[in-house]
Amino acid sequence: MKSIRLATVLMLVAALFAGCTSVSRQLGNLTDNKYAEARSGTVWVVPPPQLEPPAGGDRTVYISYRNISDSDIELLNLLKESAREQGWSVVNDPSTAKYRLRASTRYFGEVEPESGGAIAAGTMGAIAGAATGIGTGVAVAAATDSNLAGAAAGIGVGGLVGAGLTNASRPREWALIIDVVLEEYHSEPVEFTMVTGSASGTRDVAGTHNSRMASGGGTAQGNASGATATRTSNYFPHGIRLSVWANQMNMKEEEALPEIEERTRRVVTQMLPM
């Protein structure tokens, strides 16, 4: 009989733990906790260049994509569809495009809450394939912790469930960090110095600063070492680094990814001249 009662209690506790996240989010809505609902946003760690709007016939873009992270994220179709939705003609031959957008997923995973992925992005060094002299603006906010232990302590099986709700109420944030080389066609060849490898352990790239980034936080500048080469081409390569983030109470990876993909779709054409 005792073993049956113990098994029943354990099953009850397991069920309560399984619902801790849902309960915490419901309580968060009642207390106006900003992490109760899923949120997403972007941080332009290296902002898009401010280019002249293209003429109607010049709104042609070649888009390529590779994933060099540990994730299985595939964004090529999303990038192409988003560009088409915004009136761009996506071409298959890169030699016929006015612009060439080459995107690389560098990282997808959990990051510090409220960092927007900028701290992780700041350690990735220069953008391989981009011209040097591109500045970096890093928006960083302090990490926060929403704790509903006091409200939860009297629910269910006492302190045990209270601890579970405390953990479930903690904000978790996920970020997708994408490097983009945006190549712009010029009728005359242009000589430039290009980064051929990425440095690590550095916050940003030396150069001029552009404040086009997410609201909040501040900016930082520093130096990144890396291999370079002098090239001459009709396509000048601008570097862009974007972090797309999502957070919520106890957010799981499978909850974060749809939020991040939808946000990415909305900002694709902000990389292209408007």
What's the gist of this structure?
Residues 1-18 form the signal peptide. This protein is α/β, with parallel strands linked by helices and 274 residues long.
Structural key phrases:
single chain, 274 residues, alpha/beta, 6-stranded mixed sheet, 6 strands, signal, Complement resistance protein TraT
Mean pLDDT: 72
Instruction: Enumerate how many helices there are, as a single number.
Output: 7
Rg calculated over all Cα atoms: 23 Å
Note the main sheet. 6 strands, mixed
> Secondary-structure element order, as H and E?
HHEEHEEHHHEEH
Strand order of the largest sheet: 1-6-5-4-2-3
Beginning-to-end CA distance, first to last residue: 73 Å
Tally the structural domains.
1
Helix content: 25-40%
Low-confidence stretches: 4-18, 28-32, 134-165, 199-225
What does it look like?
This protein is an alpha/beta fold and 274 residues long. The protein has one domain. Helices cover 26% and strands 28% of the residues. The protein has helices spanning 2-18, 20-30, 76-85, 118-121, 149-152, 159-168, 253-267, and strands spanning 39-46, 60-67, 89-90, 99-111, 171-195, 228-249. It has a six-stranded mixed β-sheet with strand order 1-6-5-4-2-3. Helix 2 packs across helix 6 (159-168) and helix 3 (76-85) packs parallel to helix 7. The N and C termini lie far apart (73 Å).
